[in-house]
């Protein structure tokens, strides 16, 4: 039986971007964070907004090249990708692990 993807949460964090993305709200749980594009020496860091509204780096969730990272997020987590450097055509998604 094929996996029905209608029930899987998939969030777009960057779509052909070159700068820090906007916050999106994740339901919470285990996710796979993915990023790809022309890094040109840039670093992408997955961040969550903490209780006072400050962006906080998620430990172990930084990429300097295309790749995947597993992350655990709290319920209703507000997350974004912070971009350091000058990349181009960056794409990033966050997909819940069913």
What does this 3D model show about the protein?
This protein has a domain at 20-86. The radius of gyration is 13 Å and the shape is globular. The strands form 2 sheets. Strands 1-8-3-6 form a 4-stranded antiparallel beta sheet, with no helix packed on it. A 4-stranded antiparallel beta sheet has the order 2-7-4-5, with no helix packed on it. The chain is 0% helix and 62% strand. The two termini are 15 Å apart. It is an all-beta fold and 98 residues long. It contains no helices and 8 strands.
Features:
98 residues, mainly beta, 4-stranded antiparallel β-sheet, 8 strands, 0% helix, globular
Largest sheet: 4 strands, antiparallel
Number of helices: 0
Helix content: under 10%
The stretches of 5 or more residues where confidence is low (pLDDT under 50) are: none
Within the largest sheet, what's the order of strands?
A: 1-8-3-6
Number of strands: 8
What is the H-and-E element order?
EEEEEEEE
Cα radius of gyration in angstroms: 13 Å
* Overall body shape: globular
Proportion of β residues? over 45%
Distance between the termini: 15 Å
Structural class: mainly beta
Mean pLDDT, all residues: 94
Condensed summary:
The chain is an all-beta fold and 98 residues long. The chain is 0% helix and 62% strand. The protein has strands spanning 10-17, 24-26, 29-38, 43-49, 55-63, 67-73, 77-84, 88-96.
């Amino acid at each position: 039986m094929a996996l029905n993807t209608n029930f899987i949460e998939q969030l777009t964090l960057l779509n052909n971007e070159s700068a820090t993305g906007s916050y999106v709200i994740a339901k919470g749980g285990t996710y796979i964070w993915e990023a790809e594009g022309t890094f040109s020496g840039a670093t992408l860091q997955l961040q969550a907004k903490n209780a006072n509204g400050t962006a906080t780096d998620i430990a172990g969730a930084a990429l300097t090249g295309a790749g995947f990272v597993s992350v655990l997020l709290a319920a209703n987590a507000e997350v974004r990708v912070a971009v350091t450097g000058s990349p181009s055509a960056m794409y990033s998604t966050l997909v819940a692990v069913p």
